[in-house]
Amino acid sequence: MVLIADPSPALSASSPPDSSKPSLAGLNRDGLRIALARIGVPEKQLRMRVNQLWSWFYVRGVTSFDAMSDVSKEMRATLTQHYSLARPEIVTEQVSVDGTRKWLLRLSKQPNDARAPEIETVYIPEPGRGTLCISSQVGCTLTCSFCHTGTQRLVRNLSAQEIVGQILLARDRIGDWVVPKAGNDKGAAGPDDGQLLPEGERKITNIVLMGMGEPLYNFDNVREAMEVAADGEGLSVSKRRITLSTSGVVPEIARWGEQAGTMLAISLHATRDELRDELVPINRKYPIAELMEACRGYPGLSNARRITFEYVMLKGINDSLADARSLVRLVAGVPAKINLIPFNPWPGAPYECSDWEQIERFAEIVNKAGYASPVRTPRGRDIHAGCGQLKSASVKLRASERGKAPVESPADGSGG
Ligand code: SAH
Ligand code: SF4
Predict the structure, then answer these.
(1) S-S: 17 plus which of 81, 86, 208, 357, CB 3.0-4.6 Å?
(2) Is 144 in the pocket of ligand 2 (CB under 6 A)?
(3) What does the mean pLDDT of the chain come to?
(4) pLDDT surpassing 70 at residue 342
């Protein structure tokens, strides 16, 4: 594991982000319009200016207004005087031996925050694709019994800007922005001189809302952020490549499909209400039958656009072959993928990961029933970057201040 605490040259190449001024990075078009009107940009110029900034921010990823060479000097100076392009601040960046990266990020303190909250974002490179796992909340109000995030006390929703900020920061750090064409470095280039990176060349091809938090409890901000992410003139991550994962907030599922239209993943984890009540307590409010009905009605569902059912493998709890058969029966009739996730242990977790042979036997039943059921390959184990292990360091620090520092379990081959 490599631990980089200081921003590397990629971040400091342009003038360092100034967090004392409000940042424009991560705003949607309405937000930019308001910000520009506030500094006196005339109404009839607003649309043109917003489009101009949009390209620089979301195609080229500039971190300084000075880099926007087709914007007048006066305009650049006014922007610099009032605003910044700061991203969330990096507290630590960890790089796994397998290339997975995890960032602990500090957000700006909002009026109601006792202190600046911290979140985590993970980048997982795979052959031919790269997935960015982003957080939607600081902590989570739900208390799934196998999830580390659910034990975090501090909770607030992320703003849309903070959600988009994670994408910008990840692109900065892994070098995933359009590079200007050679010869255009003398300040005469426009943002469109570098075209969008062709999909095949992009590092972040997919986004999953599987970091910290329950995204459907922060519906409006997550939707706004995903509109920015999917915008074809900007970040251009198509909605087919964005997946929202929910623990099962039933009343919001159809609304999400209608209004946002991304792919959907359901954290199922059990096929009986009695067990799911324990593992995923929101089940007490919205039991399995209601959840499955919402899935069957998900707008746009088809064989080409399947729902992913996530199923965490917990030894002796939900991993019997009878459970596998019952899982297959439960999802029958829903265009589905089944994603078996080896349980990621965390200090004090009341579960163990199923034995590998058991996971294979379980997967075989699911496969035979006609479902592709990739077992999620353990990634970033050495940096604890797996699903459900995300929990900000400040909480660990507080625990250690109380003299009860949880000890991170060593990578032991049992989780993901
Ligand atoms: N709150 C949302 C999204 C974030 S969690 C949800 O629950 O769906 C992303 C996925 O990681 C969920 O499927 C969650 O159940 C799973 N997960 C949580 N803790 C885990 C752990 N310790 N090991 C493996 N998967 C875990
Ligand atoms: Fe929250 Fe998802 Fe963790 Fe449950 S699994 S506590 S919903 S983050």
Answers:
(1) 86
(2) yes
(3) 86
(4) yes
